[in-house]
Structures are given as C-alpha cells and as structure tokens.
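Usage

Read records sequentially. Each one opens with the input sequence:
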Amino acid sequence: MFRTRPASSDMQTRTSDDLQREYDLITRERNGGHNALSAINTQNDIARELERRES
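and closes with the structure output:
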C-alpha cells in the first residue's frame, strides 16, 4: 500500500512514547534479521520526529 501523505504528518499526531515503542519494535525486528527498506525508512522518520520534539 502506498502512503497518501508523508509519514512525518502521521507521526506528528502520535505521542513520543508511542513513537519510541514503534522504534524499539523495529530495532528488535531488524536485530532478528528483518531489514526491509520500508522499516529502515520508518525508523529514520521516527528518529527525526523524536529529535524535532526534543529541540
């Protein structure tokens, strides 16, 4: 399925705790050998959003 809006707009409506949980879940999946490009991109989007909130 293709996104109809940027991932960052979806992330702006979610709590930091929720984003951190998703980031940690992707990390566990990647550690298990699942390195889909979409997961890596989502993890990067989450990291950018969390950094934006901290500044």
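Summary fields computed downstream for this record:
- The longest helix spans residues 37-54.
- The helical segments are 7-11, 16-31, 37-54.
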